[in-house]
Design goal:
It contains 17 helices and ten strands. It is an alpha/beta fold and 444 residues long. It has a five-stranded mixed beta sheet with strand order 1-10-9-7-8, with helices on both faces. A five-stranded parallel beta sheet has the order 3-2-4-5-6, with helices on both faces. Helix 4 runs antiparallel to helix 12. Bound molecules: 5-phosphoarabinonic acid. 5-phosphoarabinonic acid (PA5) binds next to loops.
Length: 444
């Protein structure tokens, strides 16, 4: 089972903060469990790993099998919470090179997560000569980036298969009743999956939002949900036996003691998009009302050769949360070389994990000595079950952290500001006054 370890934390936080924070964590726990805190209407993810819609889950599995059978590629269109979780899990469990590997599951391409014409064209080219399907994902059904991308891919599908057959290859994941995407899907008869009302985008990876693309890539989504359910049971116990309590309390105390930046580090490059998912989860949940840790991420050991300098000796602003994924799926042993021209024979016969783990320990000691506190999250391995535990753990700790900070961890009012400006500058009807005002500012 996932665990949280604190390395020499007393030298950074000498006072027994655990006891002092326990009553506040208890209140935060109560709010999450009962949905009685700020944004409580968006706590549907808390009991999701057991309460999920089993009928829809079977439809997701059936749709995944159909896509695996009739498509060489799945184009997943979505942004933010409608994108990062699925990409994180697929990269982590199937490899960032998943699309390049020999396999009997479709390639999965993510698009609609930006506004680059080149990225769009490249993905259109990648699917031009293969059979493909599209999963368009948007809770609101109105987000510009995915909506624009969907126009291109719907057109490409219709050109290739004709309007009616194209419809058999479109899967829409959206609100159960509202939004342009839902209306379009109903009118066109596309298969739809639901983003539940009570689950916000960044907490939605274990709904159809994440599960359909993840299942198409061949990941066992029952095991993923099973892992999340195990962690849900652990978190239901409101005490420091729960790793989410330990993590939330320590990061809050580090924040209060003058460290406004949290660096998430992992020694497996396959984790990179899980870190992106984590950044959205914590950044959007905590960064408001002038408060919140700034979530950043590093890939070790690669970034030890770039950001490592700043972490070791730069301004003392940060602490690290290191995710350890355990043993690699396969072991590789360093070859012996009789000539030993590179002087590496002292490592001959040693597994790569042995070298990685010594690098991890060396870095832990160096960074801690350099004044960077370390929290260690030990996962059970790189399996669907372990990742399910990790996802739920981070979500739960995020909810607790938001309530410790006294913010609403489930809204994101700040995301609207750029959208309003963009709509005005693009000439969207209804934004005429703002357009003139903004253009005057830009042309000053
Ligand atoms: O967490 C969130 O709410 C956001 O990141 C959304 O997921 C993102 O803006 C995409 O929204 P939608 O799914 O409505 O297209």
């Amino acid at each position: 089972m996932l665990d949280v370890k604190l390395f020499e934390m007393r030298s950074f936080l000498p006072l027994p903060y655990e006891e002092a924070l326990a009553p506040r964590l208890k209140r935060a726990q109560e709010k999450l469990q009962t949905g009685s805190g700020a944004g409580g209407e968006f706590t549907g993810w808390v009991h999701l790993p057991r309460d999920y819609d089993k009928e829809e889950f079977s439809r997701i599995q059936a749709a995944a099998r159909k896509i695996q059978g009739d498509s060489q590629a799945l184009v997943v269109i979505g942004i933010g919470g409608s994108y990062l979780g699925a990409r994180g899990v697929i990269d982590c469990l199937c490899s960032p090179n998943y699309n390049l590997k020999k396999k009997n599951t479709p390639n999965v391409y993510f698009i609609g997560n930006g506004l680059s014409a080149d990225a769009l064209q490249e993905t259109l080219d990648l699917v031009a000569d293969v059979d493909f399907s599209v999963n368009v994902i948007s809770k609101s059904g109105t987000t510009t980036e995915p909506a624009v991308a969907f126009r291109f891919f719907r057109e490409a599908l219709e050109k290739k298969y004709g309007k009616e057959n194209a419809g058999e290859r479109i899967y829409a994941t959206t609100d159960k009743a509202r939004g342009a995407l839902k209306s379009l899907a109903d009118a066109e008869g596309w298969e739809t999956f639901v983003v539940p009302d009570e689950i916000g985008g960044r907490y939605s990876v274990l709904t159809a939002v994440g599960l359909l693309p993840i299942a198409v890539a061949g990941v066992d989504i029952e095991a993923l949900m099973g892992g999340a359910a195990q962690m849900m049971d652990v978190c239901a116990n409101g005490s420091y036996d729960c790793p989410a309590w330990k993590y939330a309390a320590t990061r809050y105390e580090l924040y209060r003691s003058g460290r406004p930046i949290e660096l998430l580090a992992c020694y497996d490059p396959a984790f990179r998009f899980m870190s992106e998912w984590w950044k959205q989860l914590y950044g959007e949940s905590e960064g408001k009302d002038g408060k919140g840790l700034f979530p950043a991420s590093v890939d070790f050991t690669a970034d030890l050769h770039s950001m490592g300098q700043y972490i070791q000796e730069g301004k003392r602003l940060m602490f690290e949360t290191v995710v350890r994924l355990g043993a690699s799926n396969g072991q590789l042993y360093v070859p012996r070389d009789e000539a030993d021209g590179d002087g590496l024979n002292f490592l001959a016969g040693k597994p790569m994990d042995f070298i990685r783990d010594r690098a991890m320990e060396g870095t832990l000691l160096a960074h801690t000595e350099g004044g960077v506190p370390n929290i260690i999250v030990e996962a059970d391995g790189k399996t669907p079950e372990a990742l399910g535990q990790l996802i739920y753990f981070f979500e739960y700790a995020c909810g607790l952290s938001g309530y410790l900070l006294d913010v609403n961890p489930f809204d994101q009012p700040g995301v609207e500001a750029y959208k309003k400006n963009m709509f005005a500058l693009l000439g969207k009807p209804g934004y005429e006054d703002r357009k003139a005002e903004l253009e005057a500012k830009l042309n000053k």
